[in-house]
Amino acid sequence: MHCRPRIVLSKCINLEAVRYNGGIVSDDFIRKLGTYVDFIPVCPEVSIGMGIPRPPVILAKGDNNTIRMLEPRTFIDYTENMMQFSKEFLKDLKDVDGFLFKAKSPSCGVQDCYVYDTDRKKILGRTSGLFAKTAAELFPELPIEDEARLRDYWLKYHFLTRIFAFCDLRNNFIEAKTIREMLHFHTRYKYLLMLYNQKKLKEMGNLLANWKHPGLKGVKAAYCILFKKAFQRKPPIRSHYNVMEHMFGHFSDKLNRAEKIHFRALLQKFSGERVVFTTLLEIFRQFTYRFDDSFLAEQVYLYPFPVELE
Ligand code: SF4
């Protein structure tokens, strides 16, 4: 049973018609995601008093390499207001597991918003919107994505894996009363952490093994930092091979020759293709029932997020 991550969401995605043109963005996947997470909605532009509808704003290069948020026809500069709102809103956020923003917006966009020159005629490059940039600075360890990037299967896998893992960390590791509970949490994450970062997996294991010196509180704080750092980078496909090879070792002496050949052929076929990936996961899930392997059945690698979101 997965816990419910808390995700800050751009309000114009499925929730309210707050876009500059009075519109709303419809996204089926995020609607489905709403069944399994709690959204914290925000529209930074409406929150600083910009109306609906309103003239669109752009990001433009200002003096000393600064980025300004301007309304190009009137030259009204919203930068200070937006920065002040962003810091105030974000500093009060508690128990948040990630951010999901509207792509390309000068406020919410993640790395894909155009920056114009001072005459606002030429595109100089791309950057994040002011609100999204502040969120990334204040919460560097948390996942931040936009709805467009989530159409990529592996980016979505990475985002969902992290938000559900961080929610689990908040609810089950930080709340643990005994070292036994903490060790159980770590054991459940063995293969997912092996996928993401083997070095950190070892460091966390050592930390828990030597918990007496720092004490439970000290170990918890250090473990949480390592845990979030471990999930920073999207794992390469070859790491999935490695994890599956290890997991296969649990069953290889219990399978007949034809089953082994079939599994190995599928593994060879897997080159990042999602259909083969979910098929391999299903085979492992099936093995855990068939061989009654409670250690593997509990591995978060097999169920990093609700299967309905796969
Ligand atoms: S992208 Fe952000 S600022 Fe723009 S309408 Fe949506 S929530 Fe509001």
Short structural summary:
With about 300 residues, this protein is α/β, with parallel strands linked by helices.
Protein architecture, described:
The strands form two sheets. This protein has a five-stranded mixed beta sheet. A four-stranded parallel beta sheet has the order 2-1-6-9. The radius of gyration is 23 Å and the shape is elongated. The mean pLDDT is 95. It is α/β, with parallel strands linked by helices and 310 residues long. The longest helix has 21 residues. 32% of the residues are buried. Strand 7 and strand 8 form a beta hairpin. The two termini are 15 Å apart.
What integer is the average pLDDT? Answer: 95
Question: How do the strands line up in the largest sheet?
Answer: 5-4-3-7-8
Low-confidence runs: none
Ligand species: iron/sulfur cluster
Helix segment tally: 13
Distance between the termini: 15 Å
Largest sheet: 5 strands, mixed
Q: What's the number of extended β-strand segments? A: 9
Silhouette: elongated
Q: Give the SSE string.
A: EHEHEEEHEEEHEHHHHHHHHH
The helix fraction, in percent, is 40-55%
> What proportion of the residues form beta strands (DSSP E)?
5-15%
Radius of gyration: 23 Å
Number of domains: 3
Structural class: alpha/beta
